[in-house]
Amino acid sequence: MVARESEEPKIPKDFLENIREKGLIVTWCPQLDVLSHKAIGCFMTHCGWNSTLEVLNLGVPMVAIPIWIDQCTNAKYVMDIWEIGIKAQSNEKGVVKQEVVEQCIKEEKSKEIRRNATKWRELTRKAMDEGGSFDRNNNEFVAKLVDSS
After folding, report:
1. What is the pLDDT of residues 35-66, one digit of tens each?
2. Which domains does the chain carry?
3. Edge-to-edge strands, sheet with 62-64
4. Of 19, 22, 40, 23, nearest in space to 31 by CA
5. Containing H/E element for 44?
6. Residue 23 vs residues 20, 69, 129: alpha-carbon distances, Å
């Protein structure tokens, strides 16, 4: 888990002791390296656009916990359009409980979500490859910039 240094005082002291053998809390980590590791089966995210695109490109299923602005729209895409994740429901205080996250991870549709995540990973890689749609559009954009100068 990544927790900003300013948020560390909010973490219960016994929590750090209890997870010592199972997990680690750090103030920063290279997210792409973590997400591309074969041991990662799911990414719990607030659905910021950059993270959402990184995860889409890497084919990792998501548990979406949007907080504000574009994150809710991004979560809608994750769940209903791309079908690569589940949106966790918060309670009346805006808190997502542990049981809710567990249920999202155990969701019946998890095999379908994993298949869709793999499909989108392949589609994004194909688009990024030489001659793919991203490659062509990028080359066209650069050519227009060069021609206009």
Report:
1. 999 999 999 999 999 999 999 999 999 999 99
2. 1-35 (no CATH), 41-148 (3.40.50.2000)
3. 43-45, 62-64, 85-87
4. 40
5. strand 43-45
6. 6, 31, 36
